[in-house]
Amino acid sequence: MRNPPNETLAQKAKHESERKCILGSGHAARDDLIRLALGPDNSVAPDVRAKAPGRGAWIGVDRPALEEAQAEGKLKGALARAFKTGDVRIPDDLGEKIETALRQSALDRLGLEARSGTLLTGSEKIETAARRGEVHLLIHASDAGEDGNRKLDQAWRMGGGQGQGLVFPAERTILSLALGRQNVVHIAIIDRAAAVRVRHALERWRAFIGKNDGLSTATADMPGASAMDVSEGLE
């Protein structure tokens, strides 16, 4: 059988990597959506890593929109159609469960990068690396001081970075626990692919909780880069 032309294969790959939001927000790459899985008891649970077996349903809305759809009964109807069963059990705190799972996924991603050596902590180390142009993503804890943020942002721009560092929606105690280090206030990602991976994990979380408007252009120096391009190693 004759092989299809390259553009047909590309279109097929794109189609297979996209999913439709069951709440009507259109199609998007599966990595940018949130998968919901149906358990053996017909209970719905978040599957943010998209690894659970069985049928899944995908959503691309934030938490307020999800909870509104749940309160109005629209979510149950959409899930019943997606899972082809009327016996769908949705936990009252589904939105909270999704937010917690996305938060943990972002923290786990940082932990993996720390163990891989692609992450720096400590203001002095970060400032030096930033001035040398070695920082691809700069992150500040939510309770970091403005002076410290400003100093590192300036060093990052001097080294060719763009915009300001990303404010992480968690305090330094959470970051410290995730990395197994003491007093983690600032984080620098010094590997380009790692920066895309971390940024993607953070964007998913921040989008769901409605805080993506403050994202910096931290990975704007990566022409053509996307989470799909460097997905190897993603959880």
Please give a structural write-up:
There is one protein chain. A hairpin with a 5-residue loop joins strand 3 and strand 4. With 235 residues, the chain is an alpha+beta fold. The strands form three sheets. Strands 6-9-7-8 form a four-stranded mixed beta sheet, sandwiched between helices. A three-stranded antiparallel beta sheet has the order 4-3-5. The protein has a two-stranded antiparallel ribbon with strand order 1-2. Helix 2 runs antiparallel to helix 4 and helix 4 runs antiparallel to helix 8. The two termini are 37 Å apart. It has eight helices and nine strands. 43% of the residues lie in helices and 13% in strands. The N terminus and C terminus are likely disordered.
Helix and strand topology:
Layout: H1 6-17, E1 18-20, E2 27-29, E3 34-38, E4 44-46, E5 56-59, H2 63-71, H3 74-83, H4 94-116, E6 119-121, H5 123-131, E7 137-140, H6 146-158, E8 166-167, H7 172-179, E9 186-189, H8 192-208
Parallel strand pairs: 7-8
Antiparallel strand pairs: 1-2, 3-4, 3-5, 6-9, 7-9
Q: Give the termini separation.
A: 37 Å
- Biggest sheet, spatial arrangement of strands: 6-9-7-8
Helical/strand content category: alpha+beta
Number of strands: 9
How does the overall form come out from the CA principal axes?
elongated
Please compute the radius of gyration using only Cα atoms.
Answer: 20 Å
